[in-house]
Design a protein that fits this description.
about 200 residues; mainly beta; single chain; Glycolipid-binding domain-containing protein; about 60% strand
Protein backbone atom coordinates (compact mmCIF):
# COMPACT_ATOMS: atom_id res chain seq x y z
CA UNK A 1 0.00 0.00 0.00
CA UNK A 2 1.84 3.12 -1.17
CA UNK A 3 1.72 5.94 1.34
CA UNK A 4 3.39 9.31 0.99
CA UNK A 5 3.13 13.00 0.31
CA UNK A 6 2.76 15.17 -2.78
CA UNK A 7 3.34 18.90 -2.96
CA UNK A 8 0.94 20.80 -5.21
CA UNK A 9 1.86 24.12 -6.76
CA UNK A 10 0.69 26.47 -9.48
CA UNK A 11 2.18 25.02 -12.69
CA UNK A 12 2.74 28.50 -14.11
CA UNK A 13 4.38 30.50 -11.32
CA UNK A 14 5.15 27.62 -8.89
CA UNK A 15 3.26 29.21 -5.99
CA UNK A 16 2.81 26.50 -3.32
CA UNK A 17 -0.85 25.50 -3.03
CA UNK A 18 -1.08 22.46 -0.77
CA UNK A 19 0.46 19.29 0.60
CA UNK A 20 -1.46 16.08 -0.13
CA UNK A 21 -0.88 13.19 2.28
CA UNK A 22 -2.12 10.01 0.61
CA UNK A 23 -2.40 6.27 0.70
CA UNK A 24 -3.74 4.02 -2.04
CA UNK A 25 -4.06 0.35 -2.80
CA UNK A 26 -5.51 -2.11 -5.28
CA UNK A 27 -8.36 -4.21 -3.94
CA UNK A 28 -10.62 -7.07 -5.01
CA UNK A 29 -12.89 -4.72 -6.96
CA UNK A 30 -10.41 -2.17 -8.31
CA UNK A 31 -8.35 0.59 -6.69
CA UNK A 32 -8.87 3.17 -3.95
CA UNK A 33 -7.09 6.43 -3.12
CA UNK A 34 -7.59 8.46 0.06
CA UNK A 35 -5.84 11.72 0.95
CA UNK A 36 -5.93 14.72 3.25
CA UNK A 37 -4.83 18.15 2.05
CA UNK A 38 -3.17 20.89 4.08
CA UNK A 39 -2.29 24.47 3.20
CA UNK A 40 1.38 25.52 3.01
CA UNK A 41 0.84 26.84 6.56
CA UNK A 42 -0.26 23.37 7.73
CA UNK A 43 -4.01 23.94 8.08
CA UNK A 44 -6.47 21.28 6.87
CA UNK A 45 -7.91 22.32 3.50
CA UNK A 46 -9.69 19.33 2.02
CA UNK A 47 -9.78 15.62 1.24
CA UNK A 48 -10.08 13.15 -1.62
CA UNK A 49 -11.64 9.67 -1.57
CA UNK A 50 -11.76 7.93 -4.95
CA UNK A 51 -12.64 4.30 -5.67
CA UNK A 52 -12.40 2.68 -9.10
CA UNK A 53 -13.81 -0.59 -10.34
CA UNK A 54 -11.71 -3.19 -12.16
CA UNK A 55 -12.23 -1.33 -15.47
CA UNK A 56 -11.04 2.00 -14.04
CA UNK A 57 -14.49 3.58 -13.80
CA UNK A 58 -15.20 5.80 -10.78
CA UNK A 59 -17.63 3.92 -8.55
CA UNK A 60 -17.33 6.48 -5.74
CA UNK A 61 -15.84 9.96 -5.48
CA UNK A 62 -15.98 12.26 -2.49
CA UNK A 63 -14.17 15.60 -2.50
CA UNK A 64 -14.01 18.30 0.17
CA UNK A 65 -12.47 21.76 -0.33
CA UNK A 66 -13.20 25.17 1.16
CA UNK A 67 -16.32 23.88 2.85
CA UNK A 68 -17.71 22.56 -0.44
CA UNK A 69 -18.43 18.88 -1.00
CA UNK A 70 -18.84 16.76 -4.12
CA UNK A 71 -20.07 13.17 -4.27
CA UNK A 72 -20.03 11.45 -7.63
CA UNK A 73 -19.93 8.18 -9.54
CA UNK A 74 -20.11 6.75 -13.05
CA UNK A 75 -23.84 6.67 -13.77
CA UNK A 76 -25.31 7.50 -17.20
CA UNK A 77 -21.92 9.01 -17.99
CA UNK A 78 -20.86 10.66 -14.73
CA UNK A 79 -23.24 12.05 -12.12
CA UNK A 80 -22.48 14.16 -9.07
CA UNK A 81 -24.03 16.21 -6.28
CA UNK A 82 -22.27 19.39 -5.16
CA UNK A 83 -23.16 20.87 -1.77
CA UNK A 84 -22.34 24.42 -0.60
CA UNK A 85 -20.55 25.19 2.70
CA UNK A 86 -23.83 25.88 4.53
CA UNK A 87 -25.17 22.47 3.58
CA UNK A 88 -28.45 24.07 2.54
CA UNK A 89 -28.13 24.03 -1.23
CA UNK A 90 -27.18 20.99 -3.30
CA UNK A 91 -27.02 20.87 -7.09
CA UNK A 92 -26.91 17.72 -9.18
CA UNK A 93 -25.02 17.39 -12.42
CA UNK A 94 -24.73 14.79 -15.15
CA UNK A 95 -22.49 14.76 -18.23
CA UNK A 96 -21.87 12.15 -20.91
CA UNK A 97 -18.24 11.88 -19.88
CA UNK A 98 -15.90 8.99 -19.08
CA UNK A 99 -14.65 9.99 -15.62
CA UNK A 100 -13.66 12.82 -13.28
CA UNK A 101 -10.50 14.88 -12.92
CA UNK A 102 -9.10 17.62 -10.70
CA UNK A 103 -5.93 18.81 -9.02
CA UNK A 104 -5.27 15.58 -7.08
CA UNK A 105 -2.71 13.15 -8.52
CA UNK A 106 -5.36 10.47 -7.94
CA UNK A 107 -7.16 11.57 -11.09
CA UNK A 108 -4.09 11.05 -13.29
CA UNK A 109 -3.77 7.48 -12.03
CA UNK A 110 -7.50 6.99 -12.54
CA UNK A 111 -7.34 8.16 -16.16
CA UNK A 112 -4.51 5.76 -16.97
CA UNK A 113 -6.48 2.92 -15.35
CA UNK A 114 -9.48 3.79 -17.50
CA UNK A 115 -7.59 4.11 -20.79
CA UNK A 116 -5.06 1.25 -20.33
CA UNK A 117 -2.87 2.56 -23.11
CA UNK A 118 -0.09 0.56 -24.71
CA UNK A 119 3.15 1.98 -26.04
CA UNK A 120 2.14 1.29 -29.63
CA UNK A 121 -1.30 2.86 -29.32
CA UNK A 122 -2.08 6.22 -30.86
CA UNK A 123 -3.46 9.05 -28.76
CA UNK A 124 -6.84 8.33 -27.17
CA UNK A 125 -9.45 10.99 -26.59
CA UNK A 126 -11.25 11.17 -23.26
CA UNK A 127 -13.94 13.50 -21.87
CA UNK A 128 -13.66 14.33 -18.17
CA UNK A 129 -15.53 16.45 -15.65
CA UNK A 130 -12.99 18.57 -13.76
CA UNK A 131 -13.72 19.95 -10.30
CA UNK A 132 -11.72 23.14 -9.96
CA UNK A 133 -10.45 24.62 -6.71
CA UNK A 134 -11.26 26.37 -4.47
CA UNK A 135 -15.04 25.76 -4.73
CA UNK A 136 -15.10 22.45 -6.68
CA UNK A 137 -16.85 24.03 -9.65
CA UNK A 138 -17.54 21.43 -12.39
CA UNK A 139 -16.17 21.94 -15.90
CA UNK A 140 -16.17 19.49 -18.82
CA UNK A 141 -12.78 19.05 -20.51
CA UNK A 142 -11.62 17.03 -23.49
CA UNK A 143 -8.10 15.59 -23.50
CA UNK A 144 -6.05 13.15 -25.52
CA UNK A 145 -3.59 10.77 -23.85
CA UNK A 146 -0.72 8.84 -25.42
CA UNK A 147 1.85 6.52 -23.81
CA UNK A 148 5.07 7.75 -25.38
CA UNK A 149 7.74 5.90 -23.40
CA UNK A 150 8.13 3.09 -20.87
CA UNK A 151 11.40 2.67 -19.00
CA UNK A 152 12.51 0.26 -16.28
CA UNK A 153 14.93 1.47 -13.62
CA UNK A 154 16.85 -0.64 -11.12
CA UNK A 155 16.16 0.28 -7.48
CA UNK A 156 16.91 -1.18 -4.05
CA UNK A 157 13.38 -2.63 -4.04
CA UNK A 158 13.65 -4.21 -7.47
CA UNK A 159 12.88 -2.90 -10.97
CA UNK A 160 10.69 0.19 -11.22
CA UNK A 161 8.72 0.70 -14.44
CA UNK A 162 7.99 4.34 -15.31
CA UNK A 163 5.45 5.32 -17.96
CA UNK A 164 5.60 8.72 -19.64
CA UNK A 165 2.29 9.99 -21.01
CA UNK A 166 1.73 12.97 -23.26
CA UNK A 167 -1.51 14.74 -22.36
CA UNK A 168 -3.06 17.29 -24.72
CA UNK A 169 -5.85 19.71 -23.82
CA UNK A 170 -8.00 19.60 -26.93
CA UNK A 171 -9.49 23.07 -26.42
CA UNK A 172 -6.13 24.86 -26.29
CA UNK A 173 -3.67 22.37 -27.80
CA UNK A 174 -1.47 22.70 -24.71
CA UNK A 175 0.62 19.59 -24.06
CA UNK A 176 2.38 18.31 -20.97
CA UNK A 177 4.09 15.16 -19.74
CA UNK A 178 2.98 12.94 -16.87
CA UNK A 179 5.31 10.34 -15.35
CA UNK A 180 3.65 7.46 -13.48
CA UNK A 181 4.90 4.28 -11.87
CA UNK A 182 2.18 1.82 -10.88
CA UNK A 183 -0.28 3.86 -8.80
CA UNK A 184 2.06 6.73 -7.94
CA UNK A 185 2.60 9.95 -9.92
CA UNK A 186 6.33 10.68 -10.02
CA UNK A 187 6.03 14.05 -11.75
CA UNK A 188 3.40 16.12 -13.54
CA UNK A 189 2.65 19.84 -13.97
CA UNK A 190 1.91 21.26 -10.53
CA UNK A 191 2.69 17.97 -8.78
CA UNK A 192 5.88 16.79 -7.05
CA UNK A 193 6.25 13.51 -5.16
CA UNK A 194 8.01 14.57 -1.95
CA UNK A 195 7.89 11.38 0.12
CA UNK A 196 7.02 7.72 -0.51
CA UNK A 197 7.11 5.18 2.31
CA UNK A 198 6.66 2.05 0.19
CA UNK A 199 7.02 1.18 -3.51
CA UNK A 200 4.14 1.77 -5.92
CA UNK A 201 1.65 -1.04 -6.38
CA UNK A 202 1.80 -2.93 -9.65
CA UNK A 203 -1.61 -2.59 -11.24
CA UNK A 204 -2.79 -5.26 -13.62
Amino acid sequence: MPRGRYSLHDPHDHTPLAEEHFHCAPGPSGWRYVSQLTTPEGDHSGSVDLALDELGRPIRLELHAGGWQVRGAALDGVTWVRTDPTGVHATEGNVRAHAFTGTSPAFLIATTRLLRLTHSASATRVRLVAFTDPVLAPRTVDQSWALVERQTHATDNGPLTVDEYQVTALDTGEQHAVHISGDVVLAAPGIELEDLESPPSTLA
